[in-house]
Prior knowledge:
6 strands, 6 helices, tRNA processing, six-stranded parallel beta sheet, single chain, tRNA-uridine aminocarboxypropyltransferase, DTWD2/TAPT, S-adenosyl-L-methionine, 31% helix, DTW
Amino acid sequence: MIAACKQCGLIHNCYCQAIPKIACDLYITLLTHENELLRATNTGHLAKKVLKHCEVEIWQRKQPIQALASDRIPMLLFPDDDSRAFNDLSVDEIAQAQFIVLDATWQEAKKMLNRTPELKQLPKVMISSNTESSYALRRNQEKGNLCTYEVAAQMVEQLGDASQSDKMMTFFNYYLACFQAERSGHQYKNSTV
C-alpha cells in the first residue's frame, strides 16, 4: 500500500517539490475559521507554505485575536463600502501593516466579522482585481470572489512583483490539477510547473 506524503497528504500527486518560496514584504495573518481545518479544499495552508511572512491563527469567537497584539498595524482585508483599495496604500503603510485575511467561506467570513467587534474596528482594505478565479473546488462560488491563496497572489502582484505572483499562480494551477487527479484516484501526468 502506498503511503500519503507526510507534508501534503496526497498519495499519487505529491506537489511538495513544486512549492515556490516567495520572499516579499507582506505580513499576513490568516484568521482561519475552524471549519476550514476540516476542508480538503482549503487554500490558506498553501499561502502559508509559499509566503515567508504568513501565519495562521484559528478564529475563536470568544478568544482575543493574537494578530492584533502584533507590533505591526493591523488591517483587515475585506471588501466593504469603507474599504480602501490595497494598491492605494503607500509603501510605508504596507511595510508597517499586519494584513488579516479571513480564511473561510464568504458566508463564514461575514459571520466572523459580525461576531468580532475588534475586527469591525480595523481599517479595511480590498483587492481590486479583474482576474477571474481559477479555483473551482467548491460549489456556490460567487463571480468575482477569489480564494484565500488567490488573494495572497493578488496582493503580491499589486506590490509590483508580477514575476513572483506569476510563480504563485503557476504553482496554484499545478496544485489544482494534482488535487483533482488525486480526487479521481490517479496521477497527474503533466509534471511541468
